[in-house]
């Protein structure tokens, strides 16, 4: 935690896009880092596209927004940064128009490789980084490999959107549970309700399975992003920004007592059999700016199949990404 009135520097890439546009309000209003933090906002992007955004932020008169800078220079942007939301990437809607996922990875790998090298050189070593641009897990894997001086625990990828989507499928009729999302932010992700508990301690799964069979529930969550694109002709923005805010707020300010959240984090090689350095969504709690793995969750036979499927995809993506370290 930072001292009162000591500015924190927040970097948001891809700030001309829809996710960032929705996220800016959460950041500047104090919903993420607390109401006692003034902010120095740095936005590396195409300057001409963001002048209108700058004016809107100024017109909001946020008392916590101490300074706003827009730059196309990565060194200037990440210099002494405390937090970074890495949103900028080739958008998913282009991926759906014929690109394979590995093509999306190759198109975005150099972006995160270059950002990682700069972050390693100029950012604070305590920086907390949330990777949002897809494929988020493997982009975070590339970033981690490119930032040897930044602790791996300070790099994460966004799967909170998947958790929020799963929570809604349950809670729209049944109340709010702690549901876990395992694995990749892709259509192999495994939203797991079998160990979730309602706030009153009741188990979610015995009630949920009367309304969903397991494959139907999982596929509904897995395909929600595609369904959003089909409906609005654009990818998720408002819900993704809310998930970014949820993720970083819990990481920085802590989860509630008894609350479990999903974060895609860098494996240390001793996390549910996940190989070292793979960025995999797991259940965590957060306290004092640190996340802690929730251990001891046992997976049944069908759950293990989903778990292995998403793990195999991430291992293959890691292999596909190796080219970027040879350039």
UniProtKB/TrEMBL annotation:
Residues that coordinate or bind NAD(+): 108, 132-134
Q: Which residues form the Lactate/malate dehydrogenase N-terminal domain?
A: 8-155
**Which EC numbers does the record give?**
1.1.1.37
Superkingdom of source? Eukaryota
Q: Which GO terms describe its biological process?
A: malate metabolic process; tricarboxylic acid cycle
Give the Pfam families listed for this entry: Ldh_1_C, Ldh_1_N
One term of GO molecular function: L-malate dehydrogenase (NAD+) activity
Q: Which residues form the Lactate/malate dehydrogenase C-terminal domain?
A: 159-318
Per UniProt, the enzyme's principal EC class comes to: oxidoreductase
Q: Where is the active site?
A: 185
What does the UniProt keyword field contain?
NAD, Oxidoreductase, Tricarboxylic acid cycle
Catalytically driven reaction(s): (S)-malate + NAD(+) = oxaloacetate + NADH + H(+)
Q: Where does substrate bind?
A: 92, 101, 134, 165
Name the protein family. Belongs to the LDH/MDH superfamily. MDH type 2 family.
Name of the protein this chain belongs to: Malate dehydrogenase
Q: Which organism is it from?
A: Rozella allomycis (strain CSF55)
């Amino acid at each position: 935690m930072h001292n009162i009135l000591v500015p924190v520097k927040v970097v948001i890439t891809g700030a001309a896009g829809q996710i960032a546009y929705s996220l800016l309000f959460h950041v500047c209003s104090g919903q993420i880092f607390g109401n006692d933090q003034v902010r120095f906002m740095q936005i590396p992007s195409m300057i001409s596209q963001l002048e209108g955004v700058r004016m809107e932020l100024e017109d909001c008169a946020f008392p916590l927004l101490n300074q706003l800078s827009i730059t196309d220079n990565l060194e200037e942007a990440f210099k002494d940064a405390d937090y970074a939301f890495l949103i900028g990437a080739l958008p998913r809607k282009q991926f759906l128009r014929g690109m394979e996922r590995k093509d999306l990875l190759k198109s975005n790998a150099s972006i995160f490789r270059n950002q990682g090298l700069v972050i390693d050189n100029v950012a604070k070593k305590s920086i907390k980084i949330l990777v949002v641009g897809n494929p988020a897990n493997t982009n975070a894997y590339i970033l981690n490999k490119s930032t040897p001086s930044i602790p791996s625990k300070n790099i994460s990828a966004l799967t909170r959107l998947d958790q929020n989507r799963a929570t809604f499928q349950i809670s729209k009729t049944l109340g709010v549970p702690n549901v876990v999302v395992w694995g990749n932010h892709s259509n192999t992700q495994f939203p797991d309700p079998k160990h979730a508990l309602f706030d009153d301690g009741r188990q979610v799964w015995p009630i949920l399975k009367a309304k969903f069979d397991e494959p139907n529930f999982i596929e509904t969550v897995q395909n929600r992003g595609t369904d959003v694109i089909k409906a609005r002709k654009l990818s998720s923005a408002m819900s993704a920004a809310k998930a970014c805010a949820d993720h970083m707020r819990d990481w920085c300010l802590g989860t509630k007592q008894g609350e479990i959240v999903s974060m895609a984090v860098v494996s240390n090689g001793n996390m549910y059999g996940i190989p070292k350095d793979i960025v995999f969504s797991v259940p965590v709690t957060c306290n004092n700016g640190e996340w802690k793995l929730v251990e001891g969750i046992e997976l049944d036979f069908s759950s293990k199949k989903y778990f292995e499927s998403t793990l195999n995809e991430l291992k293959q993506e890691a292999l596909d990404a190796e080219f970027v370290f040879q350039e």
